[in-house]
Structures are given as structure tokens and as C-alpha cells.
């Protein structure tokens, strides 16, 4: 789908691009920018140009990392879910059988002539327990979603602050460089003025 859209863009010359080659190129760009980020972090304080392309790659890298973490977390949660469901299912069945046996014992001990209650089956007890389990899972899911939302927002804020910090460092370095240039020009102009004064003085003496 991405390759097809790229081919329709005006001015895009690589009409032979495929989905596989587009993905490979994207992976190369992400890997290179990841190395660039590492090098930039190690060279803190060095003036670097921060343009729209770098900002776009920063945003893409963040999205890729978030997607990867989300997939890893989803896979781990799925495995935990299956294991918990298997364990819970066995526990519910065992508990239902035990409760049914207790009710049977109480029913057998009742006196004759009393109308027995409706027969409760293991399925009835399991259905009741499953309903409670669904409510607990629904509440747990809401809490997990809220935690994930807060974590994602926190990461976005951290990334934004880091980007703004880098831009501020670059601005400060540029300002320092401009100041040094101005000082150099002033020094050069002062030396030139002194030279002219000396020259004028010598001419006056000759007069």
C-alpha cells in the first residue's frame, strides 16, 4: 500500500519500488537515525543543525519504538492471559464441583416432605463465577489501558523536552559563534584604526 501511494506522488522517479524495498529503505533510515541520535547524545554541547528532516525522523523513531514495545507487551500479556485463564478455569471448575457436593450433602440431610429447591448444576455455578470473572477482567482492562495511555503521554513529553533541549543547545552555540565573529571583526577594525592613526601622525611630521 505504501509503495503504491509513493508511485502516485508527483516527482517520484522510482516507479519500480515495491512494498518490500520500501520497508527495507525505511528500516535503513530508522537504523541510521538511531545511530545519529546516539552520536548526538555523546557529543552534547557541539553545535548541530536541527532541521525539519531530523525532527520528522525523531518522530518516526519514537513511533517505531512505541509500536515495538506495544507489540512485545501485547505478546507477553497474551501469554499471561492464556496461562491465567487456564489456571482460573481449573479453579472455577474445582470450586463449582466442591460447592455442588456441599449442596448435595445438605439436600440429602433435609427432612422428607420439604419441597426441594431447583437443582443446581455445575454449569450454573460456573456461569455465576464466569460473570464475576468477566466483571473483574473488564475493570482490570480499563486500569491497564489508562496506565498505557499515561505512559505513552509521558514518553511523548520526554521526547519533546529532549528535542527542545537540543534545539536550545544549538541556538546557544550559534549565538556564541556569532559573538566570537563580532569580537573578531571589532578587533580587526580596532587594529586597522590604530594603523591609520600612526600613518597620519607620520605624515604630519613630514609636513
TrEMBL record:
<protein>
    <recommendedName>
        <fullName>No apical meristem-associated C-terminal domain-containing protein</fullName>
    </recommendedName>
</protein>
<feature type="region of interest" description="Disordered">
    <location>
        <begin position="186"/>
        <end position="207"/>
    </location>
</feature>
Amino acid at each position: 500500500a505504501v509503495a503504491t501511494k509513493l508511485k502516485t506522488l508527483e516527482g517520484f522517479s522510482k516507479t519500480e519500488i515495491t512494498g518490500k524495498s520500501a520497508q527495507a529503505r525505511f528500516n535503513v533510515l530508522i537504523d541510521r537515525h538511531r545511530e545519529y541520535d546516539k552520536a548526538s547524545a555523546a557529543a552534547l554541547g557541539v553545535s548541530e543543525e536541527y532541521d525539519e528532516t531530523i525532527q520528522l525522523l525523531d518522530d518516526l523513531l519514537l513511533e517505531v519504538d512505541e509500536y515495538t514495545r506495544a507489540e512485545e507487551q501485547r505478546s507477553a500479556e497474551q501469554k499471561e492471559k492464556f496461562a491465567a485463564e487456564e489456571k482460573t478455569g481449573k479453579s472455577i471448575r474445582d470450586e463449582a464441583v466442591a460447592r455442588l457436593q456441599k449442596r448435595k450433602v445438605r439436600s440429602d440431610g433435609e427432612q422428607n416432605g420439604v419441597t426441594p429447591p431447583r437443582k443446581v448444576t455445575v454449569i450454573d455455578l460456573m456461569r455465576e463465577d464466569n460473570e464475576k470473572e468477566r466483571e473483574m477482567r473488564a475493570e482490570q482492562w480499563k486500569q491497564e489501558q489508562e496506565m498505557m495511555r499515561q505512559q505513552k503521554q509521558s514518553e511523548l513529553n520526554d521526547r519533546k523536552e529532549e528535542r527542545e533541549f537540543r534545539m536550545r543547545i544549538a541556538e546557544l552555540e550559534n549565538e556564541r559563534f556569532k559573538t566570537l565573529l563580532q569580537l573578531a571583526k571589532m578587533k580587526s577594525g580596532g587594529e586597522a584604526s590604530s594603523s591609520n592613526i600612526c600613518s597620519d601622525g607620520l605624515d604630519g611630521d613630514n609636513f
